[in-house]
Write a structure and sequence with these properties.
Length: about 325
Amino acid sequence: MSVLTDTGHHNCRDYYLPLPRPATTHTIPPALSMTQTAAQTLRLHATQKSPLNQRPNKVTFPFLRLPCELRRKIYSYLLPYTETKSSSGSLIPTPKTSGNAASTAHKIHLASLPSAKYTANTTLWHRGQTSLLAVNKQLHTECAELLYGENNFVLWLSYDVIQFRFRWVLASGLAPSCAYDFLTLLGSTPYLGLIRRVVLTVDVVDEYTGMIKFNVGGSGLVYGLKLQVKKLVRALREADGEAIRKLTVRLQNGSDGVADGEKKIISRSRDNAIRNLEDVQGVLAPLRELKGVREVTMCGAITDAYKEDLKKSIMATP
C-alpha cells in the first residue's frame, strides 16, 4: 500500500500544511543554546531599546518644588493653630435686638454658657486639616514641625498628674475643653521633641484640699509636686529634639485662696505652720535643668528675687 502523499487543497483545514518560517525569527546558535541561562536572557531583554523596558522618570510633585518658607505659609492656613486671648470676654458676640427674636434669644443663651467665656491668657485651639500628615513622609515631617513647634501647649501640673488641657473653638462659637495625661499621650512619641512653646501651671492646693483629694498634707504636697515637675523636665530633656523656645510658668498657691476660718484651723492642726512662699516656690527648682530657653515668663506665688534667679538659670547656654 502506497503512502498517502495527498496534501489536500488550500480550502481544506483537515490537512497539516508546512507553514513558512517568519523572516524575523532569531535563532540561537547550537553552540550557545547549551550555555544560555535565564539571567542572561533577562539581561538581554532589559537592554533592548523598548519603551516598556525603560525606567520611568520620577517627577517631583510641583507643590514640593516650592520654597520651604512658602510651603510653611500654606500649611499655616490649613493646620490647627492656637490663639491666646489677652483679656477676658465672650466668644459669642452681643446680639442685636433689631434682629429675629428667636435668633437673638438663642445667641443670648449661648453667650451665657461657661464654654463661651474666657479669661485673660486663655489659649484656644482653632481646628484644621490634620490629614495633611498622611500624604507622604516629607509633608508629615514639615507639618508636624509646624503643628507642634509653633503652637502653645497648656500643661496643668498637680500632685498626681500632668495634664494637657485642650480647649478648641466650635463653629457655633462655643469652646469646650478636655484634659489628657500629657506623658501618656506624647511621652513615647517623637512629637514630644518637637514642642517649643509650653504654658505650665503648677497647682499647689491648700492643706485642707490636699487631705481630701490626695490624702496628703504638709510638706508631702510640696514634695509630690516637686517630683511631678522633675518628671516633666526629664521627659522634655530626654526627647529627641531642640530646646524649648518659650516657657510660661504660673505658680498657683491654693493657700492664698483659703478664706474660711475653719479650713485654716484644720490646716494648722495638721501642720505646725502654713506653708510660706519660700516653701511653695521650691517646687519649681527642677526647672533649672532646662537650658537654652529663649523666652521665660513667670507669675503667681513667687518672689521677684527667686524669679530672676530661676530665669537666668533656665535661659543660660547649655
